[in-house]
Amino acid sequence: MASLPTHDFCTYNFSMTYENSLSFARQLDAEDPLREFRSRFFIPEVEGKEAIYLCGNSLGLQPKSARDAVERELEHWQKLAVEGHFEGRQPWLTYHKQFKEPIGQLVGALPHETVVMNNLTANLHLLMTSFYQPTPDRYKVLMEGGAFPSDQYAVESQAALHGFSPEEAIVEVHPRPGEYTLRTEDITRTIEEHAGSLALVLFGGINYYTGQVFDMEAIAKAAHRAGARVGFDLAHAIGNVPVHLHDWEADFAVWCSYKYLNSGPGGVAGAFVHEKHADSRLPRLAGWWGYDEESRFQMQKGFRPMYGADGWQLSNGPILLMAPHQAALAIFQEAGMENLRAKSKKLTGYLEFILTSGSLLKEYIQIITPAQPEWRGCQLSLLLPRIGKKVFEQISKAGVTGDWREPDVIRLSPIPLYNSFEDVFRCGQILSQGIRAVEGEGTSHEI
Ligand SMILES: *Cc1c(COP(=O)(O)O)cnc(C)c1O
Q1: What is the pLDDT of residues 216-242, one digit of tens each?
Q2: Whose CA is nearest to atom 15 of ligand 1?
Q3: How many angstroms does the Cα of residue 64 sit away from the middle of ligand 1?
Q4: pLDDT band at 12 (very low <50, low <70, confident <90, very high)
């Protein structure tokens, strides 16, 4: 397996204590070995000023290198037309192969275990078609309660295709009363309870609402012990937290590229199929691009899949989406995921400190994301009952871009590639002002 690059210039010290001041935030920025990467991105503006963009968990910012990458392919199309499949810097016929190395580093996969194709929900359907093969005895799918709606609809409709109602087929694990996140022991116990009837465990790597990182290794082990297959939706995990799909023995995984991977709206997605299934005759929905490439153009009858994840491809690749993906992944390779994760822990830790160090923010905001750095990524989910929506509108006007998730959560995600400690400090100031504006100047708390 390709190993992660090691960058020895990065030495973050977690024993440090934070301070809620602009000068302190600026000092952290000055000491940040990754600070230069911010200039690789376009930072949007709100009312003529750079936004405090804390929404990269929803749509990552545009790398300045994306445009050149797209223009290069437009030019190949213009000048080479059909020959572009075979000529140019990166011929389109094999364009998708360049992603195996950078994606493999991000998800912990061998080159033949990943493929970049389609969109996230489409890939989820393609892989569930192969890995959810219910029988009259073993037909249940276990997932997190409150999974992203698209995943819920995908699972419901897959169950229905096999003649099961969602009520019979879907088992959800919910937090305990009074809690917001799931305990691993509750997940693994529920898997055990349904061991005889479970066909598939499908879990997020990170829950989009709470920002909780799930213990994918423990979930995969429990699923396999129960005789079920296991798949992960890495939409919020890839490019955010360390993932080791091969070692964890996930059967499959899917992800999108427009969140932490900064590859553009509706960007091309990806999928992982574990090596142990690389040569299998799993049933699948097939297309010509998944056909054995040695003889693909003989155009014969009878589908013969490529070895590995490539065998799930349907169509020739969307080159104009793959071009910005390539540009965005090059930045990850340069920065190094380990370094990004180290900064991310410190940056999100600073946001947590800002939200809990003054009495005003502490009184109004409850952070429902886990407090332990290893069980969260960039995102903190702020529960603001009653006034949340109004506060969200206030901070949006004042230049903080986060997002609102019904019924009462603001999600904020400082991104180590392009957010600064100053962004986080200023976000705290603006949140305090927002709460004062909503609650009236009578609010007497210090900030
Ligand atoms: C963002 C996200 C999606 C979106 O699906 P698309 O097919 O990319 O539109 C689906 N599932 C999860 C868990 C997500 O976070």
Answers
A1: 999 999 999 999 999 999 999 999 999
A2: 235
A3: 25
A4: very low
In this prediction, residue 400 carries a pLDDT of 98
Hey, what are 77's tokens? 């199309």
Question: What number of CA atoms fall less than 13 Å from residue 57's CA on the CB side?
Answer: 30
- Which residue's CA is the nearest one to ligand 1's atom 1? 235
Superfamily of domain 22-61+337-439: Aspartate Aminotransferase, domain 1 (3.90.1150.10)
| Ligand 1 atom with the shortest distance to the CA of 120 | 7
- Which of 57, 59, 116, 121 should be mutated for ligand 1, with most atoms under 8 A from CB? 121
Pocket lining for ligand 1, CB < 6 angstroms: 119-121, 148, 150-151, 204, 208, 233, 235-236, 256
Q: How far is ligand 1, taken at its centre, from the CA of residue 11, in Å? A: 34
Residue 16 to residues 22, 397, 428, 434: CA-CA distances in angstroms?
A: 17, 33, 20, 29
Alpha carbon nearest to ligand 1 atom 13, residue:
148
Distance 292 CA to ligand 1 centre (A): 30
| pTM score over 0.70 | yes
- What Cα–Cα distance (Å) separates residue 157 from each residue in 138, 154, 167? 17, 5, 12
Cβ-contact 256, 119 below 8 angstroms: yes
**HEC assignment per residue over 272-334:** EECHHHCCCCCCCCCCHHHECCCCHHHCCCCCCECCHHHHHCCCCCCHHHHHHHHHHHHHHHH
The CATH-assigned architecture of domain 68-333 is 3-Layer(aba) Sandwich (3.40)
DSSP secondary structure string for all residues of 201-244? EEEESB-TTT-BBP-HHHHHHHHHHTT-EEEEE-TTTTTTS---
Structural domain spans, the chain = 22-61+337-439, 68-333
| 351-363: pLDDT as tens digits | 999 999 888 999 9
The closest-lying atom of ligand 1 relative to the alpha carbon of residue 204 is 13
Cβ–Cβ under 8 Å, residues 340 and 331: no
Q: Which of 8, 33, 108, 52 is nearest to 351 (CA)?
A: 52
Q: Which atom of ligand 1 is nearest to the CA of 124?
A: 7
Write the DSSP symbol of residue 135.
Answer: -
Ligand 1 nearest atom to the CA of residue 119, by list position:
7
Place of tokens 């702020």: 382
Pocket residue to mutate for ligand 1, from 57, 127, 150, most atoms within 8 A of Cβ: 150
